[in-house]
């Protein structure tokens, strides 16, 4: 019957991190919705075109529910069935983003992310295993993986990061 | 992870991995073998490998195996990050090599080791390289891990077991006690995973599942995720049980609407909305929490709320009206998906006056939304057209502009179906609708849609004021398209030629061109139509072009096979072929695509089933082919001792009454059951076929065959009184063993009426006018009647169709509102294969007055039909 979900632990169909050209930085597909690399890339292209301009968090695409979040030059996506509980997918996305944010000490940016891509792989692996949600708390995720203690010095922050953090601060001060 | 190539970083758009290459990386992997191990360097290489796999690079089996062997060495170092990367690499590469088991030992050690940080990941990596054959070796460790006190280990073990149960269900099932224990774990994720696995292992066993649900409903859960799972299981149980909503499972789901987690609240609300046959009262609490969702600041919450409300609006538009104000706020939402959902929901629930405003709003961002939503919009428009016929013209404009936009097959199909539904409903929109469709097929890549539209043009085009303008569009298809479209176009052209005399010469020359087509089907059609049209005889045109065959195709196949089996001098008789049964209520499905796929079983198959059953009874062999079977009539009340239903089968000169009897008494067996029929009016019972034994609750069939009087062929109606006669034997309700002796008894049944409709089969004549001319006025009868018992034209039409048993043509069974006169056209085939047509002119004036004109190829048929009313 349409709309009624088979009770199953399988929740997430894919997690993606794309850059601001729509290029794949990280992609995990957990089922056979897009079995070949070509189909996956076609989907990612369509997905990026439909989402990179609007900052609207959720969309229905090719019969799938997509929740997403963009930040400077990175786009995070969590994809599930159209009948899936959207809030559940959202909690996965939030966890992915929070963990990465914690890992990169708020410098969520392509260059820094790539420098720490090994830890990002581990984070995704801790959050979803084979389509099953493992963890939705960013702090717990970071506890599970060990990180190297090398600091990112302030000098390494690029103009865009500074701008972004300045923007955030202004936004927060306005909201208060 | 500093890679130390900073200059290159900048060149490659900041991506240090953009230059790496598979073979080079795998070469580098050789340093895994060096001692001492350099964790940083090795880690870097492992990252590159994972990155390559992640990009979709294919690594061959040999390469993977080599890497695996090299990697065994890395377990000597205890560097935390490197070990974690090893696990990940093992998982990623596990399916690429058959030798993955070589790391089993190391992983088992880590899994049972002291370092908690390794254990969970080791469990998952180990299960990734384990299959059903090697699973037994680690079974002991898995059982321990499931109940481990460290939550991450327990979760890892549960989820890995869930993955493994696909191939090794029976092994995993042995761990059910451990899984059950974990269900009461305090950690929210462990509880969720345990519940999910437990259900998965037990779902085949309904009783165990419902016990499990009952237990957790009582004890409650900690984890919101586990709650969602439980809600899904409970609603699945409700659906299977199909009992009312008074069960504890429904109460549980409803109580979850008051949970403190939004996740759970939403899951419960959407479970209630998705339940079949929910009443408005049961929906109300779910709708009110969803109303809260759509005013949330979070887009995903608004989306979830709007999506679920739009589902409610499909079935219970009135239940959503309360949310209309909140939905109005969403129509300018920056998230177009949310705006679309809100607008389509409002279109279903709002009033006629708001339609224009909403449509204007939605067309402004139609290009920004995905195809799925466009289809949703079209469906909403389609539903709207049904509700407000006055909006047809406005809607047609929107639809035509949507048809011109980009879009996939499903989207275009939805639009085309919607336009066709509109132009069939409202004559005013017909011309504009047709011209929009013409424009569309000029540039249409979907064969199915093109043929559908061309067929429609062939049917509707010739009736318009200026038919010639459609010829160009159709002929362009003949030149440009593939075979299927060309064939359809040729057929459509022939229809124009048959109906518009002034166009005939041009049509003939167009068809002449197609007679040289390279495709067989197109050529055959063109040749056939060309020569038929060249005769310039209306009768031929009507019979072979406009109204086609009305027989059932499978019936025709069977008759032809039988004909070929026995050598016969006589030519094949088309009149002996069973007619195509007409599915009723088909017209409505086109306009409301959501209600489709309910009844796929067509009446055609039902009649064939009867024909098959009857032909197996030797007594009925001589009767010939089955002409028509009626619907089943109840001859008893439903709650009585014996339930009898009757189906009337009409043959050429006989009627066979089929009585389906059911014995509802479990302490009786009936034997030798017959239904005695008392005939009158010249009807004569000529044979009975008894049902030898009728056991409790096992339906049995008995037949009676009645001959239709031949002296007076117009005498075709009568009332037959029926009594069921049988021998009763008492029996033991438990064993079903009957006593030896019984006694005779009888049971009165209700009368069976033989009506005119039993002698008439419905057929569709796509072009009534042509068929009317074809039959001619040789056997025309006309009479005027006053139908005093009916007060509206629609009722009159309904009654006439029922009495005559004929098919209404040209949608004339729909009386436009507010009219005081109406013409109903009917087509049918009378017993013996004579076609009958009737035209009833109805006028509403103190009751309904009807002038009925009947034409038939047989004068008896015409007389019978004329006498049916009155």
Automatic annotation (TrEMBL), chain A:
Subunit structure of this chain's protein: Oligomeric complex that consists of at least the alpha, beta, beta', gamma, delta, epsilon and zeta subunits.
Organism lineage string: Eukaryota, Metazoa, Chordata, Tunicata, Ascidiacea
Ranges for domain AP complex mu/sigma subunit: 11-149
Signal peptide annotation: none
Keyword Ribosomal protein found: no
Family membership: Belongs to the adaptor complexes small subunit family.
Name of the protein described by the UniProt record: Coatomer subunit zeta
Organism of this sequence: Clavelina lepadiformis (Light-bulb sea squirt)
Gene3D superfamilies found in the cross-reference section: 3.30.450.60
UniProt-annotated location(s): Cytoplasm; Golgi apparatus membrane; Cytoplasmic vesicle, COPI-coated vesicle membrane
InterPro entries: AP_mu_sigma_su (IPR022775), Coatomer_zeta (IPR039652), Longin-like_dom_sf (IPR011012)
Job description of the protein: The coatomer is a cytosolic protein complex that binds to dilysine motifs and reversibly associates with Golgi non-clathrin-coated vesicles, which further mediate biosynthetic protein transport from the ER, via the Golgi up to the trans Golgi network. Coatomer complex is required for budding from Golgi membranes, and is essential for the retrograde Golgi-to-ER transport of dilysine-tagged proteins. The zeta subunit may be involved in regulating the coat assembly and, hence, the rate of biosynthetic protein transport due to its association-dissociation properties with the coatomer complex.
Mode of membrane association: Peripheral membrane protein
Automatic annotation (TrEMBL), chain B:
InterPro entries per UniProt: ARM-like, ARM-type_fold, Clathrin/coatomer_adapt-like_N, Clathrin_app_Ig-like_sf, Coatomer/calthrin_app_sub_C, Coatomer_g_Cpla, Coatomer_gsu, Coatomer_gsu_app_Ig-like_dom
Location of the Coatomer subunit gamma C-terminal domain: 757-869
Membrane recorded as keyword: yes
Recorded coiled-coil stretches: none
Keywords for the protein's UniProt record, in alphabetical order: Cytoplasm, Cytoplasmic vesicle, ER-Golgi transport, Golgi apparatus, Membrane, Protein transport, Repeat, Transport
Gene3D superfamilies, per database record: Coatomer, gamma subunit, appendage domain, Leucine-rich Repeat Variant, TATA-Binding Protein
Topology within the bilayer: Peripheral membrane protein
Compartments reported by the entry: Cytoplasm; Golgi apparatus membrane; Cytoplasmic vesicle, COPI-coated vesicle membrane
Domain of life per record: Eukaryota
Domain Clathrin/coatomer adaptor adaptin-like N-terminal: 22-535
Coatomer gamma subunit appendage Ig-like subdomain domain ranges (all copies): 609-755
Main location: cytoplasm
Pfam families referenced in this protein's UniProt entry, alphabetically: Adaptin_N, Coatomer_g_Cpla, COP-gamma_platf
Protein role: The coatomer is a cytosolic protein complex that binds to dilysine motifs and reversibly associates with Golgi non-clathrin-coated vesicles, which further mediate biosynthetic protein transport from the ER, via the Golgi up to the trans Golgi network. Coatomer complex is required for budding from Golgi membranes, and is essential for the retrograde Golgi-to-ER transport of dilysine-tagged proteins.
Family note: Belongs to the COPG family.
PANTHER family: COATOMER SUBUNIT GAMMA, COATOMER SUBUNIT GAMMA-2
Name of the protein this chain belongs to: Coatomer subunit gamma
Lineage: Eukaryota, Metazoa, Chordata, Tunicata, Ascidiacea
């Amino acid at each position: 019957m349409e709309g009624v979900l088979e009770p199953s632990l399988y929740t997430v169909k894919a997690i993606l991190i794309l850059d601001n050209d729509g290029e794949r930085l990280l992609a995990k597909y957990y089922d056979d919705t897009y079995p070949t690399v070509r189909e996956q890339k076609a989907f990612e292209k369509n997905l990026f075109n439909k989402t990179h301009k609007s900052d609207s968090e959720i969309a229905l695409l090719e019969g799938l529910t997509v929740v997403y979040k963009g930040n400077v030059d990175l786009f995070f996506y969590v994809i599930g069935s159209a009948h899936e509980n959207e809030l559940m997918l959202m909690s996965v996305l939030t966890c992915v983003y929070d963990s990465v944010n914690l890992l990169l000490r708020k410098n969520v940016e392509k260059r820094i992310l790539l420098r720490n891509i090994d830890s990002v792989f581990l984070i995704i692996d801790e959050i979803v295993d084979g389509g099953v949600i493992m963890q939705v708390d960013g702090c717990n995720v970071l506890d599970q993986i060990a990180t190297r203690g090398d600091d990112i010095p302030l000098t390494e922050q690029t103009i865009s990061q500074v701008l972004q953090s300045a923007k955030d601060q202004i936004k927060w001060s306005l909201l208060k | 992870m500093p890679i130390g190539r900073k200059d290159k970083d900048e060149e490659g758009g900041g991506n240090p991995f953009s230059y790496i290459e598979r073979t080079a990386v795998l070469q580098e992997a050789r340093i895994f073998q060096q001692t001492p191990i350099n964790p940083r360097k090795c880690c870097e290489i492992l990252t590159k490998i994972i990155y390559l796999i992640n990009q979709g690079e294919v690594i061959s089996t040999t390469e993977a195996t080599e890497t695996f062997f090299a990697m065994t060495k890395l377990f000597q170092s205890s560097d935390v990050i490197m070990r974690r990367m090893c696990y990940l690499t093992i998982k990623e590469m596990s399916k690429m090599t058959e030798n993955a088991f070589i790391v089993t030992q190391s992983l088992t050690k880590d899994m049972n080791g002291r370092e908690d940080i390794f254990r969970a990941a080791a469990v998952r990596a180990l299960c990734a390289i384990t299959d059903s054959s090697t699973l037994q070796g680690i079974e002991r460790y898995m059982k321990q891990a499931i109940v481990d006190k460290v939550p991450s280990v327990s979760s890892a073990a549960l989820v890995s077991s869930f993955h493994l149960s696909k191939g090794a269900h029976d092994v995993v099932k042995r761990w059910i006690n451990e899984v059950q224990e974990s269900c009461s774990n305090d950690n929210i994720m462990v509880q969720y995973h345990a519940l999910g696995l437990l259900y998965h292992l037990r779902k085949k066993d309904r009783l165990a599942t419902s016990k499990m649900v009952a237990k957790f409903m009582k004890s409650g859960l900690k984890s919101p995720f586990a709650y969602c799972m439980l809600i899904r299981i409970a609603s699945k149980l409700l659906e299977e049980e199909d009992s009312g909503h008074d069960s504890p499972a429904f109460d549980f789901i409803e109580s979850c609407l008051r949970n403190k987690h939004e996740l759970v609240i939403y899951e419960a609300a959407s479970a209630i909305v998705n339940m079949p046959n929910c009443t408005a009262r049961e929906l109300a609490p779910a709708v009110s929490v969803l109303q809260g969702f759509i005013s949330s600041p979070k887009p995903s919450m608004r989306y979830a709320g709007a999506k679920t409300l739009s589902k409610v609006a499909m079935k219970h538009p009135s239940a959503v009206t309360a949310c209309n104000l909140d939905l109005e706020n969403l129509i300018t939402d920056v998230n177009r998906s949310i705006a679309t959902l809100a607008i389509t929901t409002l279109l279903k629930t709002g009033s006629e006056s708001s339609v224009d405003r909403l449509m204007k709003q939605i067309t402004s961002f139609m290009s920004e939304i995905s195809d799925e939503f466009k289809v949703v919009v079209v469906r909403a428009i389609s539903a709207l057209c049904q509700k407000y016929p006055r909006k047809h013209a406005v809607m047609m404009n929107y639809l035509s502009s949507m048809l011109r936009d980009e879009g996939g097959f499903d989207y275009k199909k939805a639009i085309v179906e919607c336009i066709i539904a509109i132009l069939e409903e409202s004559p005013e929109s017909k011309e504009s609708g047709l011209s929009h469709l013409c424009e569309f097929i000029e540039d249409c890549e979907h064969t199915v849609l093109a043929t559908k539209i061309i067929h429609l043009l062939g049917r509707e085009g010739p009736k318009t004021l200026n038919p010639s303008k459609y010829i160009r569009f159709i002929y362009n298809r003949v030149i440009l398209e593939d075979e299927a479209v060309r064939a359809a176009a040729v057929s459509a052209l022939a229809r124009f030629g048959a109906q518009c005399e002034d166009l005939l010469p041009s049509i003939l020359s167009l068809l002449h061109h197609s007679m040289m087509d390279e495709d067989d089907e197109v050529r055959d059609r063109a040749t056939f139509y060309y020569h038929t049209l060249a005769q310039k005889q209306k009768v031929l045109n009507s019979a072979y072009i406009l109204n086609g065959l009305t027989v059932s195709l499978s019936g025709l196949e069977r008759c032809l096979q039988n004909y070929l089996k026995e050598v016969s001098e006589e030519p094949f008789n088309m009149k002996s072929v069973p007619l195509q049964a007409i599915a009723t209520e088909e017209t409505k499905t086109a306009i409301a695509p959501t209600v489709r796929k309910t009844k796929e079983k067509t009446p055609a198959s039902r009649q064939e089933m009867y024909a098959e059953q009857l032909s197996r009874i030797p007594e009925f062999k001589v009767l010939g082919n089955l002409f028509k079977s009626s619907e089943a009539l109840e001859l008893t009340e439903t709650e009585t001792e014996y339930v009898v239903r009757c189906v009337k089968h009409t043959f050429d000169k006989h009627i066979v009454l089929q009585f389906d009897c059911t014995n509802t008494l479990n302490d009786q067996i009936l034997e030798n059951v017959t239904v005695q029929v008392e005939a009158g009016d010249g009807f004569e019972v000529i044979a009975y076929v008894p049902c030898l034994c009728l056991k409790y609750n096992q339906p049995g069939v008995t037949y009676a065959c009645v001959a239709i009087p031949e002296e007076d062929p117009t005498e075709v109606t009568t009332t037959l009184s029926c009594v069921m006669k049988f021998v009763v034997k008492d029996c033991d309700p438990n064993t079903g063993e009957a006593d030896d002796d019984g006694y005779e008894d009888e049971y009165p049944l209700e009368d069976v009426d033989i009506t005119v409709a039993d002698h008439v089969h419905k057929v569709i004549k796509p072009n009534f006018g042509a068929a009317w001319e074809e039959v001619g006025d040789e056997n025309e009868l006309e009479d005027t009647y006053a139908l005093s018992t009916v007060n509206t034209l629609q009722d009159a039409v309904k009654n006439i169709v029922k009495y005559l048993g004929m098919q209404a043509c040209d949608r004339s069974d729909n009386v436009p509102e507010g009219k005081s006169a109406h013409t109903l056209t009917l087509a049918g085939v009378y017993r013996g294969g004579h076609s009958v047509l009737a035209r009833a002119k109805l006028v509403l004036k103190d009751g309904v007055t009807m002038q009925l004109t009947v034409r038939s190829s047989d004068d008896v048929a015409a007389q019978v039909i004329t006498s049916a009313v009155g």
